[in-house]
């Protein structure tokens, strides 16, 4: 391969700057691809030379740009054989909390099980089991602003489709993939989301964030508080419910529930029930429906804690009442964590 000429450096630098016509970036880092018959040592030297000389020329031509090796807005690959430049853009991250008021939408996109997203008669050729999700609602509002290719929702756990997420909401980070616009106003996004999707979900505390918060969201496994409406299929005497207090601070052994065995390994998990609160109807000597509020360790299968799952969860509400019980309605009332505080502490320790 011929030596890197001044003309080649100039052309490559201008190709880098031309990328900004469609993609916004302020920080960048260069790489160089060398093709053709060339010794390994010569190729390494040529890559270093191209990265250095083209990088210097880029910032001479545009003082607003800065080469940054750690998490730049854009990684740019120089092709010396064609004198072209190819860009790969770092994702944008937004932190927030979501509430889910609907019992009919999942947290994230859910491909059709039969066709795996390709489209078939079962899913009416949509490729999806559920037609929308919290992630897709967020994308509907934010993708056009960032001109991004797609989204990925990271959250502190997830609730079942038929469970509501209430209280202060569930912490999440929305990853915007390959954004072509990096700076845009999000002050009105929460209101716009409420206008479009308020009957199904809402978002709070939305703001731009960084990898430290993303790492915190992905690593946390906090306690959660649930409120469950329970049906006793055979009415139980009011006095029997005093025994439910023994579940507080109990360690529960749970085999993987039958309802998820098709997608999860059959394991035995031990989880702690921190607190139990029981709310019975005001009148009547026997009870067929009541509410129970639980604070439990992360990973507890609450529906099975109520029903016993045919003995796969022990102890359970059904076992203590000696009645078949089932979960009629499940709400997540709190996710006990603060990813922002965890991220701040991690930054301070770094």
Can you put this structure into words, describing what you see?
The chain is α+β, with helices and mostly antiparallel strands and 350 residues long. The chain has three domains: 6-88, VC0802-like, CATH 3.30.2130; 92-219, 2-Layer Sandwich (Alpha-Beta Plaits), CATH 3.30.70; 224-335, Alpha-Beta Plaits (2-Layer Sandwich), CATH 3.30.70.3190. It contains eight helices and 14 strands. Strands 5, 6, 7, 8, 9, 10, 11, 12, 13 and 14 form a ten-stranded mixed sheet that branches. Strands 2-1-3-4 form a four-stranded mixed sheet. Strand 6 (150-155) and strand 7 form a beta hairpin. It is elongated, with a radius of gyration of 27 Å. The model has no long low-confidence stretch (mean pLDDT 95).
What's the tally of helices? 8
CATH class of the largest domain: Alpha Beta
Give the overall average pLDDT: 95
Give me the strand/helix succession. Answer: HEHEEEEHEEHEHEEEEHEHEH
Anisotropy-based shape: elongated
Which strand-content bin applies to the residues? 25-35%
Oligomeric state of the chains in view: single chain
Outline:
By secondary structure, the protein is α+β, with helices and mostly antiparallel strands. Helices cover 25% and strands 33% of the residues. Strand 3 and strand 4 form a beta hairpin.
